[in-house]
Amino acid sequence: MKKARSKKTLYLHPFSYFSLMKLFRISFLIIVFSIIACGVEAQNRGNVWCFGDSAGLNFNTPGNIPTSFKANHLSKGSCVSICDANYNLLFYAYTQAGVIGPTTVVIDSSFNIMSNGSNIIGGGSYNELCIIPNPSDSNLFYLFTTAILGSSQGLYYSVINKTLNNGLGAITLKNIFISSTDYFDGLIGICHGNGRDWWLILHHWNGSNTFDKFLISPTGIANVTSQSIGINFDSDIGDFSFAYLTNKFISVTLNTEIQVLDFDRCTGVFSNPIIIQNGGFAAFGSVGCSVAPNGSLVYISNTNNFSDSLRLYQYDLNATNINQSRQTIFTQKVPASGGFHALGPDGKIYISCLYEYGYPYADSIHNVYSDNLSVINYPDSTGLACDFQPFSVNLGGQRTYWGLPNNPNYEAGAWLGSPCDTLVSLPSDDEIQHISLNVFL
User: What CATH number corresponds to the domain at position 218?
Assistant: First the structure.
Protein backbone atom coordinates (compact mmCIF):
# COMPACT_ATOMS: atom_id res chain seq x y z
CA MET A 1 0.00 0.00 0.00
CA LYS A 2 1.09 3.53 -0.70
CA LYS A 3 2.07 5.49 2.31
CA ALA A 4 -0.10 8.59 2.75
CA ARG A 5 1.74 11.77 1.90
CA SER A 6 1.93 14.08 4.87
CA LYS A 7 1.05 17.73 4.44
CA LYS A 8 4.07 19.98 4.71
CA THR A 9 4.15 23.45 6.14
CA LEU A 10 6.34 26.01 4.45
CA TYR A 11 8.15 28.59 6.57
CA LEU A 12 9.77 31.54 4.85
CA HIS A 13 12.17 34.05 6.28
CA PRO A 14 10.57 37.54 6.07
CA PHE A 15 13.22 38.68 3.62
CA SER A 16 12.66 35.57 1.48
CA TYR A 17 8.90 36.16 1.55
CA PHE A 18 9.08 39.72 0.31
CA SER A 19 11.67 38.78 -2.31
CA LEU A 20 9.33 36.05 -3.48
CA MET A 21 6.41 38.47 -3.60
CA LYS A 22 8.44 40.89 -5.72
CA LEU A 23 9.57 38.11 -8.05
CA PHE A 24 6.01 36.86 -8.41
CA ARG A 25 4.67 40.31 -9.24
CA ILE A 26 7.31 40.78 -11.91
CA SER A 27 6.64 37.33 -13.40
CA PHE A 28 2.90 37.93 -13.28
CA LEU A 29 3.27 41.23 -15.14
CA ILE A 30 5.45 39.67 -17.80
CA ILE A 31 2.95 36.86 -18.42
CA VAL A 32 -0.06 39.17 -18.44
CA PHE A 33 1.38 41.71 -20.79
CA SER A 34 2.71 39.00 -23.07
CA ILE A 35 -0.91 37.90 -23.43
CA ILE A 36 -2.54 41.30 -23.95
CA ALA A 37 0.21 42.94 -26.00
CA CYS A 38 -1.68 44.84 -28.69
CA GLY A 39 -4.17 42.00 -29.10
CA VAL A 40 -3.97 38.34 -28.21
CA GLU A 41 -2.82 37.45 -31.74
CA ALA A 42 0.05 39.92 -31.90
CA GLN A 43 2.91 37.49 -32.47
CA ASN A 44 4.77 37.78 -35.79
CA ARG A 45 1.98 39.63 -37.54
CA GLY A 46 4.48 41.50 -39.70
CA ASN A 47 6.35 38.43 -40.95
CA VAL A 48 5.19 38.52 -44.60
CA TRP A 49 5.88 41.50 -46.86
CA CYS A 50 4.31 42.24 -50.27
CA PHE A 51 5.62 45.24 -52.23
CA GLY A 52 6.91 46.52 -55.56
CA ASP A 53 6.39 44.48 -58.74
CA SER A 54 4.91 41.26 -57.27
CA ALA A 55 7.74 41.04 -54.73
CA GLY A 56 7.21 39.09 -51.53
CA LEU A 57 9.42 38.25 -48.56
CA ASN A 58 8.51 35.64 -45.96
CA PHE A 59 10.37 35.78 -42.62
CA ASN A 60 8.77 32.57 -41.27
CA THR A 61 12.02 30.64 -41.53
CA PRO A 62 14.69 29.56 -39.02
CA GLY A 63 16.62 32.64 -37.99
CA ASN A 64 14.01 34.84 -39.73
CA ILE A 65 16.07 34.64 -42.92
CA PRO A 66 13.66 36.03 -45.53
CA THR A 67 12.68 33.88 -48.50
CA SER A 68 11.25 35.44 -51.64
CA PHE A 69 7.98 34.58 -53.35
CA LYS A 70 5.83 35.92 -56.17
CA ALA A 71 2.72 37.82 -55.10
CA ASN A 72 0.02 39.47 -57.21
CA HIS A 73 0.31 43.23 -57.48
CA LEU A 74 2.16 46.13 -59.09
CA SER A 75 2.82 49.17 -56.94
CA LYS A 76 5.66 51.64 -56.75
CA GLY A 77 4.84 52.75 -53.22
CA SER A 78 2.16 52.38 -50.55
CA CYS A 79 1.71 48.83 -49.24
CA VAL A 80 0.86 47.06 -45.97
CA SER A 81 0.38 43.45 -44.85
CA ILE A 82 -0.63 41.46 -41.79
CA CYS A 83 -0.43 37.81 -40.66
CA ASP A 84 -2.55 35.68 -38.35
CA ALA A 85 -1.47 34.12 -35.05
CA ASN A 86 0.20 31.25 -36.93
CA TYR A 87 2.32 33.73 -38.93
CA ASN A 88 0.39 33.06 -42.16
CA LEU A 89 -0.54 35.95 -44.42
CA LEU A 90 -4.09 37.18 -43.78
CA PHE A 91 -4.23 39.93 -46.40
CA TYR A 92 -2.30 42.86 -47.80
CA ALA A 93 -3.11 46.13 -49.53
CA TYR A 94 -1.36 48.38 -52.02
CA THR A 95 -2.02 51.51 -54.06
CA GLN A 96 -1.88 51.49 -57.81
CA ALA A 97 0.46 54.18 -59.08
CA GLY A 98 -0.19 56.83 -61.72
CA VAL A 99 -3.93 57.08 -61.05
CA ILE A 100 -5.73 59.77 -59.07
CA GLY A 101 -8.72 58.54 -57.07
CA PRO A 102 -9.73 55.33 -55.26
CA THR A 103 -6.78 53.20 -56.32
CA THR A 104 -6.14 51.03 -53.24
CA VAL A 105 -6.69 47.28 -53.56
CA VAL A 106 -6.87 44.63 -50.81
CA ILE A 107 -5.55 41.14 -51.65
CA ASP A 108 -6.56 38.07 -49.62
CA SER A 109 -4.41 35.10 -48.64
CA SER A 110 -5.18 33.32 -51.93
CA PHE A 111 -3.63 36.32 -53.76
CA ASN A 112 -6.95 37.38 -55.26
CA ILE A 113 -8.77 40.68 -54.73
CA MET A 114 -10.68 40.42 -51.48
CA SER A 115 -14.47 40.59 -51.65
CA ASN A 116 -15.37 44.29 -52.01
CA GLY A 117 -11.64 44.99 -51.85
CA SER A 118 -11.13 47.37 -54.77
CA ASN A 119 -11.80 51.08 -55.37
CA ILE A 120 -10.56 52.10 -51.93
CA ILE A 121 -9.38 55.68 -51.57
CA GLY A 122 -5.61 56.16 -51.49
CA GLY A 123 -3.38 57.69 -54.14
CA GLY A 124 -0.25 56.34 -55.75
CA SER A 125 2.29 57.71 -53.28
CA TYR A 126 4.42 55.88 -50.72
CA ASN A 127 3.16 55.72 -47.11
CA GLU A 128 -0.59 56.17 -47.42
CA LEU A 129 -1.78 52.93 -45.81
CA CYS A 130 -1.82 51.39 -42.32
CA ILE A 131 -3.53 48.25 -40.93
CA ILE A 132 -4.52 48.33 -37.25
CA PRO A 133 -6.30 45.43 -35.50
CA ASN A 134 -9.60 46.31 -33.83
CA PRO A 135 -8.85 46.24 -30.07
CA SER A 136 -12.33 44.87 -29.27
CA ASP A 137 -12.60 42.10 -31.89
CA SER A 138 -9.68 40.02 -33.15
CA ASN A 139 -11.59 39.23 -36.36
CA LEU A 140 -11.85 42.87 -37.44
CA PHE A 141 -9.20 45.19 -38.85
CA TYR A 142 -9.06 48.86 -39.75
CA LEU A 143 -7.39 49.81 -43.02
CA PHE A 144 -6.55 53.51 -42.79
CA THR A 145 -5.86 55.28 -46.08
CA THR A 146 -4.85 58.78 -47.08
CA ALA A 147 -4.78 60.60 -50.38
CA ILE A 148 -2.50 63.58 -50.84
CA LEU A 149 -3.69 64.36 -54.38
CA GLY A 150 -7.04 64.91 -56.05
CA SER A 151 -10.49 65.71 -54.69
CA SER A 152 -10.43 62.81 -52.19
CA GLN A 153 -7.47 64.08 -50.18
CA GLY A 154 -7.69 63.45 -46.45
CA LEU A 155 -8.01 60.44 -44.13
CA TYR A 156 -10.42 57.50 -44.52
CA TYR A 157 -10.88 54.02 -43.12
CA SER A 158 -12.31 50.71 -44.24
CA VAL A 159 -13.12 47.63 -42.13
CA ILE A 160 -12.05 44.05 -42.94
CA ASN A 161 -13.80 41.05 -41.37
CA LYS A 162 -11.51 38.04 -41.71
CA THR A 163 -14.26 35.49 -40.91
CA LEU A 164 -16.27 36.19 -44.06
CA ASN A 165 -15.96 34.48 -47.44
CA ASN A 166 -14.78 31.18 -45.93
CA GLY A 167 -12.02 32.84 -43.99
CA LEU A 168 -10.61 34.85 -46.90
CA GLY A 169 -12.21 37.99 -45.52
CA ALA A 170 -14.30 40.79 -46.94
CA ILE A 171 -14.56 44.58 -46.71
CA THR A 172 -17.69 45.41 -44.70
CA LEU A 173 -17.24 49.19 -44.53
CA LYS A 174 -15.35 51.16 -47.15
CA ASN A 175 -14.01 54.68 -47.59
CA ILE A 176 -15.47 56.05 -44.36
CA PHE A 177 -14.49 59.72 -44.17
CA ILE A 178 -12.54 61.00 -41.15
CA SER A 179 -10.78 64.23 -42.12
CA SER A 180 -10.25 66.43 -45.19
CA THR A 181 -6.90 67.75 -43.97
CA ASP A 182 -4.18 68.06 -46.60
CA TYR A 183 -1.82 65.56 -45.00
CA PHE A 184 1.85 64.78 -45.54
CA ASP A 185 2.37 61.46 -47.36
CA GLY A 186 2.98 59.46 -44.25
CA LEU A 187 1.02 57.88 -41.42
CA ILE A 188 2.23 55.60 -38.68
CA GLY A 189 0.56 53.31 -36.17
CA ILE A 190 2.10 53.19 -32.67
CA CYS A 191 0.89 50.80 -29.97
CA HIS A 192 -0.57 52.57 -26.93
CA GLY A 193 1.26 52.18 -23.65
CA ASN A 194 -1.57 49.99 -22.34
CA GLY A 195 -0.68 47.31 -24.92
CA ARG A 196 -4.21 47.17 -26.32
CA ASP A 197 -5.07 50.46 -28.03
CA TRP A 198 -3.32 52.25 -30.87
CA TRP A 199 -2.27 55.75 -31.87
CA LEU A 200 -2.54 56.72 -35.53
CA ILE A 201 -0.32 59.71 -36.30
CA LEU A 202 -0.29 61.99 -39.34
CA HIS A 203 1.25 65.39 -40.10
CA HIS A 204 0.06 68.47 -41.96
CA TRP A 205 2.36 69.90 -44.61
CA ASN A 206 2.67 73.08 -46.73
CA GLY A 207 4.57 74.98 -44.05
CA SER A 208 2.86 73.43 -41.03
CA ASN A 209 4.36 71.82 -37.92
CA THR A 210 1.09 70.20 -36.74
CA PHE A 211 0.60 66.53 -35.91
CA ASP A 212 -2.87 64.95 -35.83
CA LYS A 213 -3.30 61.97 -33.48
CA PHE A 214 -6.20 59.52 -33.43
CA LEU A 215 -6.80 56.96 -30.66
CA ILE A 216 -8.11 53.53 -31.72
CA SER A 217 -9.68 51.73 -28.74
CA PRO A 218 -12.56 49.29 -28.08
CA THR A 219 -14.95 52.26 -28.27
CA GLY A 220 -13.86 53.12 -31.81
CA ILE A 221 -11.78 55.89 -33.39
CA ALA A 222 -11.47 58.92 -31.10
CA ASN A 223 -11.64 62.49 -32.34
CA VAL A 224 -8.40 64.03 -33.51
CA THR A 225 -6.00 65.65 -31.07
CA SER A 226 -3.67 68.13 -32.75
CA GLN A 227 -0.29 69.34 -31.55
CA SER A 228 1.98 71.91 -33.18
CA ILE A 229 5.61 71.17 -32.40
CA GLY A 230 8.96 70.87 -34.13
CA ILE A 231 9.87 71.53 -37.71
CA ASN A 232 7.64 72.95 -40.46
CA PHE A 233 7.03 70.45 -43.26
CA ASP A 234 7.60 72.11 -46.63
CA SER A 235 7.35 68.85 -48.58
CA ASP A 236 4.53 66.32 -48.74
CA ILE A 237 6.83 63.29 -49.23
CA GLY A 238 8.92 61.59 -46.56
CA ASP A 239 8.95 58.99 -43.83
CA PHE A 240 8.33 58.31 -40.11
CA SER A 241 10.03 55.83 -37.79
CA PHE A 242 9.61 54.99 -34.10
CA ALA A 243 11.80 53.25 -31.49
CA TYR A 244 9.89 51.56 -28.66
CA LEU A 245 12.88 51.10 -26.36
CA THR A 246 13.47 54.85 -26.15
CA ASN A 247 10.11 56.27 -27.32
CA LYS A 248 11.92 58.28 -30.01
CA PHE A 249 9.97 59.43 -33.06
CA ILE A 250 11.90 60.27 -36.26
CA SER A 251 10.60 62.23 -39.25
CA VAL A 252 12.23 63.16 -42.53
CA THR A 253 10.92 64.97 -45.62
CA LEU A 254 12.00 65.25 -49.22
CA ASN A 255 13.41 68.70 -48.40
CA THR A 256 15.75 67.09 -45.86
CA GLU A 257 13.90 68.35 -42.81
CA ILE A 258 15.00 65.80 -40.20
CA GLN A 259 13.91 65.83 -36.56
CA VAL A 260 13.71 63.65 -33.45
CA LEU A 261 10.99 63.95 -30.81
CA ASP A 262 9.99 62.08 -27.67
CA PHE A 263 6.54 60.47 -27.83
CA ASP A 264 4.54 59.47 -24.75
CA ARG A 265 2.64 56.28 -25.60
CA CYS A 266 0.22 56.88 -22.70
CA THR A 267 -0.81 60.48 -23.42
CA GLY A 268 0.04 60.73 -27.11
CA VAL A 269 2.03 63.92 -26.47
CA PHE A 270 5.21 64.86 -28.37
CA SER A 271 8.02 66.72 -26.58
CA ASN A 272 11.70 67.71 -26.76
CA PRO A 273 12.06 68.26 -30.52
CA ILE A 274 15.62 68.09 -31.78
CA ILE A 275 16.29 69.34 -35.31
CA ILE A 276 19.00 67.30 -36.99
CA GLN A 277 18.73 69.07 -40.32
CA ASN A 278 16.38 71.78 -41.58
CA GLY A 279 16.92 71.34 -45.32
CA GLY A 280 20.13 72.28 -47.04
CA PHE A 281 21.74 69.11 -48.39
CA ALA A 282 22.43 69.94 -52.02
CA ALA A 283 21.16 67.20 -54.35
CA PHE A 284 20.22 65.13 -51.31
CA GLY A 285 16.45 64.88 -51.15
CA SER A 286 15.83 62.77 -48.04
CA VAL A 287 13.09 60.15 -48.22
CA GLY A 288 13.98 57.05 -46.21
CA CYS A 289 14.57 56.95 -42.47
CA SER A 290 14.78 54.23 -39.85
CA VAL A 291 15.86 53.85 -36.25
CA ALA A 292 17.88 50.94 -34.91
CA PRO A 293 16.13 48.48 -32.55
CA ASN A 294 18.12 49.88 -29.60
CA GLY A 295 16.70 53.33 -30.34
CA SER A 296 20.04 55.13 -30.38
CA LEU A 297 21.05 55.16 -34.06
CA VAL A 298 19.15 56.75 -36.97
CA TYR A 299 19.67 56.01 -40.66
CA ILE A 300 18.79 58.47 -43.44
CA SER A 301 19.05 57.84 -47.18
CA ASN A 302 18.53 60.10 -50.18
CA THR A 303 16.58 59.99 -53.42
CA ASN A 304 19.43 61.52 -55.51
CA ASN A 305 17.14 61.65 -58.59
CA PHE A 306 19.90 59.80 -60.47
CA SER A 307 22.03 62.97 -60.64
CA ASP A 308 24.03 62.47 -57.47
CA SER A 309 25.53 59.67 -55.43
CA LEU A 310 23.26 57.34 -53.49
CA ARG A 311 24.00 57.98 -49.82
CA LEU A 312 23.27 56.41 -46.45
CA TYR A 313 24.03 58.34 -43.27
CA GLN A 314 23.99 57.28 -39.63
CA TYR A 315 23.30 59.62 -36.68
CA ASP A 316 23.91 58.90 -32.98
CA LEU A 317 21.02 60.11 -30.82
CA ASN A 318 23.19 59.82 -27.69
CA ALA A 319 25.72 62.30 -29.04
CA THR A 320 25.97 65.79 -27.53
CA ASN A 321 25.59 67.22 -31.03
CA ILE A 322 23.53 64.78 -33.09
CA ASN A 323 24.12 66.58 -36.37
CA GLN A 324 27.89 66.42 -35.93
CA SER A 325 27.68 62.70 -35.11
CA ARG A 326 26.78 61.89 -38.70
CA GLN A 327 28.78 59.09 -40.30
CA THR A 328 28.71 58.21 -43.98
CA ILE A 329 27.87 54.53 -44.31
CA PHE A 330 27.60 54.45 -48.09
CA THR A 331 28.04 56.85 -50.98
CA GLN A 332 28.26 55.77 -54.59
CA LYS A 333 27.12 56.99 -57.98
CA VAL A 334 24.60 54.37 -59.12
CA PRO A 335 21.70 54.39 -61.60
CA ALA A 336 19.19 54.01 -58.77
CA SER A 337 17.34 56.37 -56.46
CA GLY A 338 17.18 55.53 -52.76
CA GLY A 339 13.76 54.67 -51.35
CA PHE A 340 12.13 53.83 -48.04
CA HIS A 341 13.29 51.78 -45.06
CA ALA A 342 11.62 48.97 -43.08
CA LEU A 343 12.78 47.20 -39.93
CA GLY A 344 12.44 43.47 -40.46
CA PRO A 345 11.31 40.82 -37.97
CA ASP A 346 14.94 39.69 -37.95
CA GLY A 347 16.12 43.01 -36.50
CA LYS A 348 17.73 44.11 -39.77
CA ILE A 349 16.83 47.26 -41.71
CA TYR A 350 15.88 46.84 -45.36
CA ILE A 351 16.09 49.65 -47.93
CA SER A 352 14.42 49.84 -51.33
CA CYS A 353 15.42 51.76 -54.43
CA LEU A 354 14.07 52.81 -57.81
CA TYR A 355 16.09 51.94 -60.92
CA GLU A 356 16.64 55.01 -63.10
CA TYR A 357 14.22 53.98 -65.86
CA GLY A 358 11.39 54.40 -63.40
CA TYR A 359 7.90 53.04 -62.90
CA PRO A 360 6.75 50.76 -64.39
CA TYR A 361 9.82 48.81 -65.47
CA ALA A 362 9.75 47.25 -68.90
CA ASP A 363 9.52 43.46 -68.80
CA SER A 364 13.12 43.24 -70.06
CA ILE A 365 14.59 45.25 -67.15
CA HIS A 366 16.17 43.00 -64.55
CA ASN A 367 19.42 43.99 -62.85
CA VAL A 368 21.10 44.30 -59.48
CA TYR A 369 19.25 47.55 -58.72
CA SER A 370 15.74 46.48 -59.64
CA ASP A 371 15.91 42.89 -58.39
CA ASN A 372 17.35 43.39 -54.89
CA LEU A 373 16.89 45.21 -51.61
CA SER A 374 19.77 46.61 -49.58
CA VAL A 375 20.18 45.64 -45.93
CA ILE A 376 21.79 46.93 -42.74
CA ASN A 377 22.72 43.70 -40.99
CA TYR A 378 23.68 45.10 -37.56
CA PRO A 379 21.82 48.40 -37.20
CA ASP A 380 22.65 48.70 -33.47
CA SER A 381 26.37 48.99 -34.32
CA THR A 382 28.00 52.35 -34.96
CA GLY A 383 29.77 53.31 -38.15
CA LEU A 384 30.74 50.72 -40.72
CA ALA A 385 30.27 47.97 -38.12
CA CYS A 386 26.54 48.17 -38.97
CA ASP A 387 27.49 46.15 -42.08
CA PHE A 388 25.44 47.78 -44.84
CA GLN A 389 25.20 45.50 -47.88
CA PRO A 390 23.83 47.32 -50.93
CA PHE A 391 21.63 45.44 -53.43
CA SER A 392 22.23 42.10 -51.72
CA VAL A 393 18.77 40.70 -50.82
CA ASN A 394 17.50 38.95 -53.94
CA LEU A 395 13.77 39.03 -54.66
CA GLY A 396 13.68 35.85 -56.72
CA GLY A 397 13.01 37.53 -60.06
CA GLN A 398 10.53 40.07 -58.68
CA ARG A 399 11.38 43.76 -58.50
CA THR A 400 11.47 46.66 -56.07
CA TYR A 401 10.50 50.32 -56.42
CA TRP A 402 10.62 53.01 -53.72
CA GLY A 403 8.00 51.57 -51.39
CA LEU A 404 8.24 48.99 -48.60
CA PRO A 405 5.45 47.81 -46.25
CA ASN A 406 4.32 50.52 -43.83
CA ASN A 407 3.55 47.92 -41.15
CA PRO A 408 3.35 49.01 -37.51
CA ASN A 409 5.19 47.03 -34.86
CA TYR A 410 2.50 44.53 -33.90
CA GLU A 411 4.78 42.98 -31.26
CA ALA A 412 5.43 46.19 -29.29
CA GLY A 413 3.20 45.41 -26.30
CA ALA A 414 2.58 47.45 -23.18
CA TRP A 415 4.96 50.11 -21.90
CA LEU A 416 5.91 48.37 -18.65
CA GLY A 417 6.42 50.72 -15.72
CA SER A 418 4.44 53.52 -17.37
CA PRO A 419 1.34 55.10 -15.78
CA CYS A 420 -0.94 53.35 -18.28
CA ASP A 421 0.22 49.71 -18.14
CA THR A 422 -2.73 48.81 -15.89
CA LEU A 423 -5.34 47.11 -18.08
CA VAL A 424 -5.26 44.02 -15.83
CA SER A 425 -5.76 44.29 -12.05
CA LEU A 426 -3.04 42.65 -9.99
CA PRO A 427 -3.95 40.24 -7.17
CA SER A 428 -3.73 41.47 -3.59
CA ASP A 429 -0.81 40.57 -1.32
CA ASP A 430 -3.01 37.97 0.43
CA GLU A 431 -3.87 36.40 -2.93
CA ILE A 432 -0.23 36.42 -3.96
CA GLN A 433 0.79 34.75 -0.67
CA HIS A 434 -1.86 32.03 -1.12
CA ILE A 435 -0.83 31.37 -4.73
CA SER A 436 2.87 31.35 -3.81
CA LEU A 437 2.43 28.92 -0.94
CA ASN A 438 0.38 26.58 -3.09
CA VAL A 439 3.07 26.60 -5.72
CA PHE A 440 5.73 25.50 -3.28
CA LEU A 441 3.77 22.97 -1.24
Answer: 2.130.10.10
